[in-house]
Amino acid sequence: MTIQWFPGHMAKANRELKENLGKIDVVIELVDARLPQASRNPMLNETAAGKPRVIAMMKTDLADPEVTKAWHAFFEERGETVVNVNAKHGKGLKDLLNTAVEVGKQTQARLIEKGVSPRAPRAMVIGVPNVGKSTLINQLINKKTANIGDTPGVTRQQQWLKVNQNLDLLDTPGILWPKFEYEDVGNKLALVKAIKEERFIAQDVALFLINILKERYPELLKDRYKLDEIPEDGVELFEAIGLKRGCLIRKGDVDFEKAAGVVLTDFRNEKLGKISLETPNDWKERLTEESEA
Ligand code: GDP
């Protein structure tokens, strides 16, 4: 998949992010529980270097609970602070809040040492598009709708939102550009709508998902598409799903475009069940290589 961003846009977004980072004590880094590592952006390690960080694993209600547990342990082993959140149903918010305050106090302690008078730690929410930034901010400040926009180029006055006595939150979330140096990362981000539809080919992304489901969740596939058995070959399986769903160009010939739409919509509308698109094992080798490079 060759998806490119405009370097000018990226440079500007990066500059704004750096400016905002300068104002805060703790970063709340949102990742999608279904693709915890693929929804991170390695760039943040440089941009937010030295800034205390809490990982909020979002949308845990949609992910495979066993895999989420494994990811939680994986991040902790690597010395990261991680909290599971289900913002849609308001779960894990208190835990996130308390953790952010604790972590934010580290920066505070340094300021107090320098003689700066103490104030509530300041936090900022950062993540790729559609990870749940606005939903989380609204939940934290108990607001039903956001006047928070993701639209690039829209500048307005930033505000500090008072979450409670112990934490202030920047009202503007930091938007990370999805980064996909690996092909599977692009496909996963496309599946969870972190990338706009016009930037990828639906059939490729659907086939990618079908192959994951075939390996890891064959029973969910059988249930949803009333399949007696799962063909070995991903394309054959794609075809079988299309046939079952009546996605035909003419008698017997599957309309793959339409079948892709069915599979993607089912995944996004939670019709397939709780699915994780990656496990820590999928990343161990890559991350070891990266840290040695
Ligand atoms: P943003 O682009 O990062 O600001 O993402 P939004 O806050 O707009 O959320 C994107 C979509 O994800 C919306 O449809 C939310 O309702 C949904 N969403 C956010 N958090 C959760 C969650 O924890 N669980 C579920 N199931 N959906 C969520």
UniProtKB/TrEMBL annotation:
It is found in: Cytoplasm. Coiled coil: none annotated. Pfam families: MMR_HSR1 (PF01926). One of its GO terms (molecular function) is GTP binding. InterPro entries: GTP-bd (IPR006073), GTP-bd_ortho_bundle_sf (IPR023179), GTP-bd_ribosome_bgen (IPR019991), GTPase_MTG1 (IPR016478), P-loop_NTPase (IPR027417). The keyword GTP-binding applies. GO terms for cellular component: cytoplasm. Residues 123-218 form the G domain. GTP binds at residues 130-135, 174. Keywords: Cytoplasm, GTP-binding, Nucleotide-binding, Ribosome biogenesis. CDD domains: Ras_like_GTPase, YlqF. GO terms for biological process: ribosome biogenesis; translation. Required for a late step of 50S ribosomal subunit assembly. Has GTPase activity. Essential protein that is required for a late step of 50S ribosomal subunit assembly. Has GTPase activity that is stimulated by interaction with the immature 50S ribosome subunit. Binds to the 23S rRNA. Required for the association of ribosomal proteins rplP and rpmA with the large subunit. NCBIfam families: GTPase_YlqF. PANTHER family: MITOCHONDRIAL RIBOSOME-ASSOCIATED GTPASE 1. Belongs to the TRAFAC class YlqF/YawG GTPase family. MTG1 subfamily. Interacts with ctc. Interacts with the immature 50S ribosome subunit. 2 molecules of rbgA bind to one 50S subunit. This is Ribosome biogenesis GTPase A. It comes from Salsuginibacillus halophilus. The lineage of its organism: Bacteria, Bacillati, Bacillota, Bacilli, Bacillales.
